[in-house]
Automatic annotation (TrEMBL):
InterPro entries: HATPase_C_sf (IPR036890), Sensor_HK_TwoCompSys (IPR050482). GO terms for molecular function: kinase activity. One of its GO terms (biological process) is phosphorelay signal transduction system. It comes from Nocardioides aromaticivorans. This is Signal transduction histidine kinase. The chain crosses the membrane at residues 21-41, 47-67, 122-140, 146-168, 391-412, 418-435, 447-468, 488-514, 526-543. Keywords: Kinase, Membrane, Transferase, Transmembrane, Transmembrane helix, Two-component regulatory system. Coiled coil: none annotated. Gene3D superfamilies: Histidine kinase-like ATPase, C-terminal domain. The keyword Membrane applies. The lineage of its organism: Bacteria, Bacillati, Actinomycetota, Actinomycetes, Propionibacteriales.
């Protein structure tokens, strides 16, 4: 479950961290645009300079805190201060609604911070901020123009802020579901581990130790071969409970069935594959492993599995006999044929005496990959929000309501805008068609032509009807409205594709603005809203996809728990045990530790379990390999035995014949029969760990001391005097 935690944070905390980062980037971008536009002014008033400095300091601090430890109520206060200062900055005239010098540029910031810091009752706080803004606009203007402009701007920004709140709520709901599932999986995994530990102990004691003893005494017997094969299959993982949808699991099982020693290298997160693709890829890879077992003359192979959202590559490599010429019929049918049936490729190369390499590569549809419409993206987002089309439609509807309400308020002081109304109607129809298609299933790539083309054409036709003074203000609300199709499709395509879809809009807006006399300094205020909104939505969607990945992951299986329990129980002993079992009936197997010694090592793993006794197990095994008879009498093993292991290392150097190890948590005793020569007895105390004592005579030598001096010191017990 560690994959679901980032830097020690829970999944939910990392989600909130992502939200804070996105809000921080939005505020930082708006602050930079404000600073650039202020710096481009023709003249500066000292009050204006100090006011601008205060605004930049306040919102800049908030942005940095969002990017750092996260915002709090204090940051809402700082943004509100910036809003008040911006409203009272001295101006020659009352800025029109939405203009670059209007305090509207500071209205969305406190609302976004409220969304970040208040999980509940955010709407009343946002409405209070909007009411404060309208009041400030009215009072600072000293006329009804300020009231009208304030209402127009507040409605526009409230639509954007409420849409952001809706999206964040969807993200938090998906995050909460994922967090609950992680907790459930964690409990199931603990239960599986507990059961697997009991089952592993029984298997090691009842099956593995007797099998290893049989391999050492009667290796050619049919019963021994059968027992070795059964033990080997269980060490690779039990067949029941296996996750058949996991390619890596299937390859491990196939290697175990073929009794191959396989190094499996897995790169990339697990991804969902179409059933036909998974079956063909696994079938071809299994056939390649069979060929290694039957024809290479080797029992070892390397399998590399590279997983990508829209691609999968499997490479099977051995250093066996190899081949020359054209691959046989079996390879062409069982491997190449399978790959061709799913549009994948298989490359088989062999060199006589140097081995064979089989490389299998499948890639999803090229068009879908280039457009960021991978099936994996669609599957994950549907796992998080069920119906992305409905969620996208609701979010876009909230945004559209704000834009249209602003358009309605504009009729108070601006002539009717029939071209803008007609363009908005066309865009609304496109959004409805897109979201309905998203609800039915994966979006067809051709739909992106509508998203990228229709809004740009609408802007080209309708935007010239907006006055030069109104361009960049609320009068040009159609600019933001035209981004709605791209924001809707952001739920099922990649962020880079969303930004590309907005490029035609940006080109048209730039051409129209320059034609109406806008300067280069004015363009950022006009252009940056669309990509900024798209990036914010993309962050929300990315978090929901991440939650969807958690929600679609299978819970920890019994086979996974078994494999972990076996690895923990046997540790470094696992590999030589597997090699010994595979060597049954294989005359070409490389020699290794005797099965009898391995059986004793497995017993040590049973009675001295865990990493705290790993050094002692290694020393006991090393003693046995010198030919010494080793007996252990530890009915209740000490918590740790590192010092005892060091003492046995000193004993092993003079080649004892018979060693008996006994003791408890406080003191360990090692008896060596017969005793070592006098010259060894003389230097033995200097070779033993601190606090160990020697009592020796020619017939036997007894050494005693703490099994783990570090544990003794931590407990605060009195240390024995050095011997």
């Amino acid at each position: 479950m560690g994959a679901h935690r980032l830097s020690g944070r829970s999944f939910g905390a990392s989600v909130e961290r992502g939200l804070n980062l996105s809000i921080g980037m939005v505020i930082l971008a708006k602050t930079l645009v404000f600073a650039v536009q202020f710096a481009a002014m023709d003249s500066f008033d000292p009050v204006e300079v100090s006011s601008a400095a205060a605004i930049i300091m306040c919102v800049g601090t908030v942005a940095l805190r969002c990017l750092g430890r996260g915002p709090s109520g204090f940051d809402v206060l700082l943004c509100t201060v910036a809003l008040v200062v911006g409203a009272w900055m001295p101006r020659d005239s009352v800025p029109v609604a939405g203009a670059a010098d209007s305090p509207i540029v500071h209205l969305v910031e406190p609302m976004l911070v409220v969304i970040a810091v208040r999980r509940q009752r955010a709407v009343p706080a946002m409405l209070l901020i909007a009411a404060l803004f309208v009041t400030l606009r009215w009072e600072s203007a000293g006329s009804t123009d300020g009231l009208v402009f304030g209402l127009q701007e507040a409605v526009l920004i409230c639509g954007t802020a409420f849409a952001a709140l809706y999206l964040v709520t969807q993200m938090r709901r998906a995050s909460a579901r994922a967090e609950a599932l992680i907790a459930s999986h964690r409990e199931v995994h603990r239960a599986h581990l507990s059961a697997a530990e009991v089952e592993t102990t029984a298997f090691l004691h009842d099956d593995l130790v007797p099998t290893l003893l049989a391999v050492g005494s009667i290796p050619g017997a049919a019963e021994t071969r059968s027992a070795a094969g059964s033990a080997l299959a269980r060490l690779a993982g039990p067949a029941h409970g296996e996750d058949a949808a996991d390619v890596a699991t299937a390859l491990r099982s196939a290697a175990a069935r073929e009794m191959l020693d396989v190094d499996l290298v897995v790169r990339g997160p697990r991804t969902h594959l179409p059933e036909a693709v998974r079956e063909a890829m696994v079938g071809a890879a299994v056939e390649a492993l069979r060929n290694v077992s039957r024809h290479s003359g080797q029992r070892h192979a390397t399998v590399t599995l590279v997983r990508r959202p829209t691609a999968l590559r499997i490479r099977v490599e051995d250093h066996g006999a190899g081949f020359a010429g054209t691959p046989g019929v079996g390879i062409r049918v069982a491997i190449v044929g399978r790959m061709e049936s799913i549009g994948a490729t298989a490359r088989i190369t062999g060199t006589p005496g140097a081995g064979t390499v089989v490389e299998l590569v499948w890639r999803g549809r090229l068009v879908s990959r280039l457009l960021g419409m991978a099936p994996e993206h669609d599957r994950l987002i549907r796992a998080a929000v069920v119906d992305p089309g409905r969620v996208a439609l609701r979010a876009v509807a909230i945004l559209a309501a704000g834009y249209l309400a602003t358009a309605a308020l504009l009729t108070i002081d601006v002539p009717l805008q029939p071209w803008s109304y007609g363009g908005a109607a066309v865009i609304a129809v496109v959004v409805v068609l897109l979201t309905r298609a998203m609800s039915r299933g994966p979006l067809h790539p051709a739909a992106l032509l509508l998203v990228g083309g229709v809004p740009a054409v609408v802007l080209l036709v309708a935007l010239p009807s907006v006055s030069a003074d109104g361009l960049g203000g609320t009068e040009s609300w159609l600019i933001e409205f035209s981004a709605l199709p791209a924001l809707a499709t952001a739920w099922v395509i990649s962020v880079r594709m969303v930004l590309l879809l907005l490029v035609p809009n940006a080109v048209v807006i730039t051409l129209v603005a320059l034609d109406k006399g806008a300067t280069a300094v004015d363009l950022p205020h006009i252009l940056f809203v669309q990509p900024l909104n798209a990036l914010f939505v993309a962050v929300i969607v990315a978090v929901c996809r991440r939650a969807g990945r958690v929600l679609t992951e299978p819970e920890a299986s019994q086979s996974t728990a078994w494999a972990r329990a076996v690895r923990v129980a046997l540790g470094p002993t696992l590999r030589p045990v597997v090699a010994a079992l595979r060597s049954v009936g294989d005359d070409t197997a490389a020699p290794g530790p005797g099965p009898g010694l391995l059986a004793q090592a497995v017993r040590d793993c049973l009675y001295l379990p865990g990493p705290e006794h790993e050094a002692l197990r290694a020393e006991l095994d090393a003693l046995r390999r010198t030919g010494a008879q080793v007996d252990t009498i530890l009915p209740e093993p000490p918590p740790a035995t590192r010092t005892l292991a060091a003492a046995l290392g000193a004993v092993r150097r003079f080649g004892p014949s018979h060693v008996t190890v006994s003791g408890n948590a406080d003191e360990a005793t090692v008896v060596i029969v017969p005793g070592p020569p006098p010259e060894v007895v003389e230097r033995l105390p200097r070779q033993l760990p601190v606090a160990w004592q020697v009592d020796a005579d020619p017939e036997a030598c007894v050494i005693t001391g703490p099994p783990d001096l570090a544990t003794l010191i931590r407990r605060g017990d009195p240390q024995p005097a050095p011997g």
